[in-house]
Amino acid sequence: METRQIQYFLEVAKREHVTEAADALHIAQSAISRQIANLEKELGVELFIREGRSVKLTPLGRIFYERIKQVWYLMEDSKREIREYLNPEKGTVRIAFPISMAAHTLPHIIYSFRTRFPEAKFQMSNALYYDLIDGVVNGQFNLAMIAPMPNLEKEKKIKGDILFTENIVALIPLHHPLSDRESIRLRDLMNDQFCVLPEGFVFREQVVQACNGAGFSPNIAFEGKDIDALKGLVSAGLGVALMPEMTLVDNTPRSTVVIPLSDSRLTRTVGVIYPAERDLLPTEKLFYDFLIETYERLNEFKN
C-alpha cells in the first residue's frame, strides 16, 4: 500500500467525485482511478460504488476510510513534528472552533500569539459541538476551542482546560417594552417569541433548558442557522434571543439592545480541548500554553 494510494483514496472518499478529487490534487483522473483500482486489488474488496465520475463508499470502504483517515493524520503529524522540533516558532497550529467564536474570540487571541511568534501559521476550521470533540479524538485537528466545556469525567479521550466563563445575555429589539431596563429576569421574556439556533446545536439546548428552569417553555418562532442570523432576526423585530456575551462584543446589531440577565446561573464555560492519547505538536503546544497564560492573566484582571 503506497502513500499516494491512501492520499487519492481519502480525497475521492471525501468529495465522492473523481473529477473533483483530481482537480484538488492537480493530477489526471486516470491516475487516481488507476491507483484506487490497484488499492482495491491489493485489499481484495471494492471500496467504492461507481456511478460515472461520482462514487460512494461501500460498507467495507466506509470502515477502511475511518481507519485509514486516522493513520493519514498520524503520518502528517509525524512529518510536521520532525519539522517543528527544530523550530517550533515557525510551525502550524491546526485548530477548530464553533462559529460563535469566529468574529471575536479566536481572531484576537491568534493576533496576540502572532505578535509574539510572527512566523507561526494556522489551519482553522469551524464545526458543531460534537464534531469538535470527534475531530480532536480522531486526529482531524489537535486543538479545539469549545463552549460549553465538555465533562472530562465522561469524555475520557480528550483533555483540556476552561479558559473563562461568560454570561448569557438577552438581545431584544430596540422598541421592546423592556429595552430601557438595566437588567431583566429570563422569566420577563416568557410571552415573547424566541429566535434560536437549529436542532442539534448545544446552545439551543442550553437556551431551552434555561427557560424551562425559569418556569416556562420558550415560544420558538424562528430558527437561524448561526449567531449572525439570530442577530438579523432580532434586528428585524421578529423576536428575542439569548446570546453568549462574547458574540456581541463590538458587534451589536442596529435596532437592538443587549440586556443583562439577573439570573446568575445563566453562564457558559469556554475552553480548549486536545487529545488524551496524543501529544500536541511543538507549535500547538506553544499556542496551548499561550492560551492558558493569556486567560489566566485576563481572569486575574477581572477579579
From TrEMBL:
Chain coiled-coil ranges: none
Domain of life: Bacteria
Keyword Protease listed: no
InterPro entries given in the database record: LysR_HTH_N, LysR_subst-bd, WH-like_DNA-bd_sf, WH_DNA-bd_sf
Gene3D superfamilies, sorted: 3.40.190.290, Winged helix-like DNA-binding domain superfamily/Winged helix DNA-binding domain
All copies of domain HTH lysR-type, residue ranges: 1-58
Gene Ontology MF terms in the entry: DNA binding; DNA-binding transcription factor activity
One Gene Ontology cellular component: protein-DNA complex
UniProt keyword list: DNA-binding, Transcription, Transcription regulation
Family per similarity comment: Belongs to the LysR transcriptional regulatory family.
Protein known as: LysR family transcriptional activator of glutamate synthase operon
Origin species: Neobacillus niacini
